[in-house]
Specification:
Helix content is 28%, strand content 30%. The chain is α+β, with helices and mostly antiparallel strands and 165 residues long. It has one domain: Peptide Deformylase, CATH 3.90.45.10. Strand 4 and strand 5 form a beta hairpin. The longest helix has 17 residues. The structure holds zinc ion. The site of zinc ion has 5 residues, from helix 2.
């Protein structure tokens, strides 16, 4: 098991939609293991494949009820509204109050090929939405209101200059 470098804002892989996983094999299961180790070490509650530079449609998570992984996830229904302070391992040390649906219905496939069909709310529902956004090439910055987003971009551009990028 190994921790993997987490890609951060500015890396183009975070802006690219992922491709569907076509085969669930030992290589994928090993990668999911490494992603969980990486996520726990960060620490975070979710990690999507693009965040470690893999442009494939799957993510791992653990919001406190044990680890899970979802391959080719889709959110098929949402309802309600919930404001929650949200962060992202690819946009380190920044958090914003973000409004999203309170409940989601997620479908996908597990690492043993089993069908996943789950309704989630609270932190798990939020985590699923955040990770599926990653798989669609979207960061939480795109969920911010106009002013928060402007402030965020100012901070992030400043960081990029400090890093000499
Ligand atoms: Zn994230």
């Amino acid at each position: 098991m190994a921790t993997l470098p987490i890609r951060v804002f500015g890396d183009p892989v975070l802006r690219q939609p992922t491709l569907a996983v076509t085969e669930i094999d030992d290589a994928l299961r090993q990668l999911a293991e490494d992603m969980l180790v990486t996520m726990y070490a960060a620490p975070g509650v979710g990690l999507a494949a693009p965040q470690i530079g893999v442009q494939r449609r799957f993510f791992v998570y653990d919001v406190g009820d044990g680890p899970g992984a979802v391959v080719n996830p889709r959110i098929v229904e949402t309802s309600g509204e919930w404001t929650y302070l949200e962060g992202c391992l690819s946009v380190p040390d920044l958090h914003w109050e973000i409004i999203r649906p309170a409940r989601v219905h997620l479908v996908g496939i597990g690492l043993d090929g089993e069908e996943i069909d789950v309704e989630a709310d609270e932190l798990l529902g939020r985590c699923f939405q955040h990770e599926v956004d990653h798989l669609d090439g979207m960061l939480l910055l795109e969920r911010l209101g106009h002013k928060d987003r402007k402030d965020a971009m100012r901070i992030l551009r400043g960081r990029a200059l400090e890093d000499g990028r």
